[in-house]
């Protein structure tokens, strides 16, 4: 009985004390009179609120821009599909895509993926510079690499492969001058080296094969080799 009475009186005392504390707090109007806000503080708060409003505007603009960009991409993709459905448009799309970057050029050959490797052809250059002969051959199912050398240690590398679906070839454009020309009806990419130890490069596609020739020899010699392979 004494414990229950003590708990009840203690609980009531706490409630009464809490009410007294709350009642002792001045009203809102009196607090406003007691607390004064400096002009500097008010100006700072206005700046913060204005910055917050500007941030909301920027975020809304970004979201709207994303929606517009998505709509444009969808429209471009849809128009591209319509254009590619036309046979004449498809015929005008080049097999090679050239992308220019700061330090290199990327050449992407959009060849068809090889499904049958039973009828693999073999190519060799009919023309070789004087003094060069075949020194090494590496072959697998759909590609081959030939190395030609002379008595002075100079080398010529010739490679080709059948399955070049979306093959990507990089050429350093800081040390090369890139140009294209037609050889026997085929578009050929020619990279002239301009550094002290030059490595000239020729790249092209022909009859569902991709070819590369590179060497320290002059570009004229390599072009003659490419012409002899195109004549095959």
Features of this protein?
41% helix; 10 strands; 2 domains; alpha+beta; 5 helices; 232 residues
Explain the overall architecture.
By secondary structure, the chain is of the alpha+beta class. It has 2 domains: 25-93; 95-230, Phosphorylase Kinase, domain 1. Helix content is 41%, strand content 31%. The protein contains 5 helices and 10 strands. The chain has helices spanning 2-24, 28-34, 39-84, 87-92, 219-230; strands spanning 96-100, 104-110, 133-139, 143-149, 155-161, 165-172, 176-183, 186-193, 200-206, 209-215. Strands 3-4-5-10-9-8-7 form a 7-stranded antiparallel beta sheet, covered by helices on one side. Strands 1-2-6 form a 3-stranded antiparallel beta sheet, with no helix packed on it. A hairpin with a 2-residue loop joins strand 9 (200-206) and strand 10. The model is unreliable at 88-94 (pLDDT under 50).
């Amino acid at each position: 009985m004494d414990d229950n009475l003590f708990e009840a009186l203690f609980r009531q005392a706490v409630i009464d004390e809490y009410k007294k504390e709350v009642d002792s707090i001045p009203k809102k109007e009196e607090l406003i009179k007691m607390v004064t806000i400096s002009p500097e503080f008010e100006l700072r708060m206005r700046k913060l609120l204005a910055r917050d409003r500007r941030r909301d505007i920027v975020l809304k603009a970004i979201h709207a821009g994303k929606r517009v960009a998505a709509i444009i991409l969808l429209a471009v993709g849809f128009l591209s599909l319509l254009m590619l459905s036309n046979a004449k448009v498809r015929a005008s799309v080049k097999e090679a895509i050239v992308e220019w970057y700061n330090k290199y050029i990327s050449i992407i050959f959009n060849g068809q993926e090889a499904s049958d490797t039973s009828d693999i052809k073999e190519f060799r250059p009919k023309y070789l510079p004087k003094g060069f002969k075949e020194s090494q051959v590496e072959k697998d199912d759909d590609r081959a690499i030939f190395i030609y050398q002379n008595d002075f240690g100079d080398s010529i590398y010739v490679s080709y492969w059948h399955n070049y679906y979306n093959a990507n070839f990089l050429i350093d454009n800081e040390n090369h001058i890139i140009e294209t020309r037609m050889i026997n009806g085929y578009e050929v990419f020619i990279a002239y080296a301009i550094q002290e130890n030059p490595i000239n490069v020729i790249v092209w596609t022909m009859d569902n094969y991709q070819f590369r020739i590179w060497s320290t020899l002059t570009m004229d010699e390599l072009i003659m080799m490419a012409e002899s392979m195109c004549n095959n």
